[in-house]
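Tokens as discussed.
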């Protein structure tokens, strides 16, 4: 590196330009640059930035030895010209080899990223593989143009997925914030609102695996199971659910199938935006079987009261479940 008559250590310069050099290596490179090699370094850096090829293979040692040999035998009056030309040539070789020498992998042309947004209304999109996605209002997905070979969707907002099974090698993956949902073929809902730290995944059919990007473990969800992941704390809570409200935004239906009072309360809170307080003595023995479609909150309250023989008091935005007198 310090012999100005020789081509410098290109692997060390490569690490320096790639930001991968140690403190000691950075000092070595900068000492070499400051020893009267500023012009050579500028040429190398310029070719580094411009080069993006990785399809050719070169014998680096042989190339650099040839360059050094030519410099030693050149006349002094022509040495600077030869150095400049050969430095640029060697730098081109370096630029071509960097992806394989440093990254140890071949460059793959990036596929074009496509996006689809639902704006202010519910929208459906049929993917190339036959999967059907229903997006809630103000939701967006992004996916690769070569989706059939890269079945990955990035979601912002809420969507219901009806995934087509292809084979075990082409699993369908949904990215929602830092949560990854992997499926083979199933139906499930994902809610990942930008303003919330909570990602909700609920399964209506089949099986999905849910994991956070910083965690190698995954949680398996089956039909009628739901998970809430706090992307801020990493806490994940898995619960059983008959999904009465998770896809109300799409179906406009609430279906209670032998549902506990706690689940009824949670559904009403989610769909109608109310707070629910439970003051029932025998709530564990109560189960609700009922379905609603586009009903008002008052209509729902009346049916629940008659079916379970309880009283529901409504005060402002709060509902209170009480035993009938």
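Sequence:
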């Amino acid at each position: 590196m310090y012999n100005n008559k020789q081509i410098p250590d290109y692997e060390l310069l490569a690490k320096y330009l790639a930001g991968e050099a140690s403190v000691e290596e950075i000092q070595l490179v900068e000492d070499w640059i400051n020893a009267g090699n500023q012009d050579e370094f500028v040429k190398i850096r310029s070719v580094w930035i411009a080069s993006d090829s990785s399809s050719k293979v070169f014998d680096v040692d042989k190339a650099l030895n040839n360059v050094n040999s030519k410099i030693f035998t050149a006349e002094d009056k022509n040495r600077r010209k030869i150095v400049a030309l050969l430095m640029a040539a060697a730098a081109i070789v370096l630029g071509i080899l960097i992806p394989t020498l440093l990254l140890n992998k071949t460059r793959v042309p990036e596929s074009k990223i496509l996006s689809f947004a639902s704006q202010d209304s519910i929208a459906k999109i049929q993917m190339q593989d036959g999967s059907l996605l229903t997006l809630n209002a103000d939701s967006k997905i992004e996916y690769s143009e070569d989706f059939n070979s890269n079945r990955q969707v990035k979601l912002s907002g809420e969507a219901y997925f009806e995934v087509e099974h292809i084979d075990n090698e082409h699993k369908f993956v949904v990215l929602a914030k830092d949560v990854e949902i992997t499926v083979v073929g199933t139906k499930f809902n994902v809610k990942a609102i930008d303003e919330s730290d909570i990602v909700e995944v609920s399964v209506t059919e089949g099986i999905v695996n849910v994991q956070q990007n910083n965690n190698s473990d995954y949680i398996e969800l089956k039909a009628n199971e739901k998970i809430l992941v706090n992307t801020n704390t990493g806490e994940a809570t898995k619960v059983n659910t008959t999904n009465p409200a998770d896809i109300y935004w799409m179906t406009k239906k609430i279906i209670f199938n032998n549902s506990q009072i706690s689940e009824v309360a949670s559904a009403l809170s989610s769909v109608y935006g109310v707070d629910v307080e439970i003051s029932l003595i025998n709530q564990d023995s109560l189960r609700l079987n009922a379905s609603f479609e586009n009903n008002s909150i008052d209509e729902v309250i009346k049916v629940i009261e008659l079916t379970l023989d309880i009283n529901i008091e409504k005060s402002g935005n709060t509902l209170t479940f009480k035993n009938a007198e």
